[in-house]
Amino acid sequence: MTDQNTPLRIDIVSDVMCPWCVIGYRQLAIALESRGVDHEIHWHPFELNPNMPATGQDMREHLVEKYGTTREQSDANQANMSARGEELGFAFRFEDGFRMHNTFKTHQLLHWAKTQDRMHDLKQALFAAHFTDGRNLSDDAVLVDIAAEIGLDPAEAAAVLVDQRFAAKVRQEQAFWAQQGISGVPAMVFDRQHLVTGAQGVDNYQNILGQLQDMRA
């Protein structure tokens, strides 16, 4: 067990298409702040829809095809997520025509951002770009713009997307987490050994963090 003087390592496996990843992370962030836990977060790639075409798909159509979700169920789920997001300071805007996108290139850009120590910032920017602003994350030019907006080099970002230099690395990391049994997101691993799945809520995260602090004492 890691001692209490070492920052708590939190590995988060997620996809920027995953609304519960936004909610779960923000719940965790509140819990971490309220408990004053020294921590470091490491984001890892997961594709909810690896076979989605590059052009993306209307969200309602996608949910019907994948889960058999009715329009009424979809509306209720979106209202629930929007309410939870509002409580956490995040705006979900599920308007008509809202689309899901293929995120393989997005994960490649995130991997590059990690080499610039900006992965966390880009992750948050991509969440907002998709869920709040409805921007097309299937479009390389949009991804480059988002990278530039947080201060990353747009020319280098464009080159990363064109030559896909990190494609193999992303696939390797996806395979690693799949081998660990991760089949859904968000999946959070604390101190490399305690797996917590789904968005647990602020109170539950506070309890989890308290248990981890006791174990480290």
From TrEMBL:
Domain DSBA-like thioredoxin: 10-209
InterPro entries recorded: DSBA-like_thioredoxin_dom, Thioredoxin-like_sf
Keyword presence, Isomerase: yes
Keywords: Isomerase
Pfam families, A to Z: DSBA
MF GO annotations: isomerase activity; oxidoreductase activity
PANTHER family the UniProt entry points to: GLUTATHIONE S-TRANSFERASE KAPPA, THIOREDOXIN SUPERFAMILY PROTEIN
Name of this protein: Putative DsbA family dithiol-disulfide isomerase
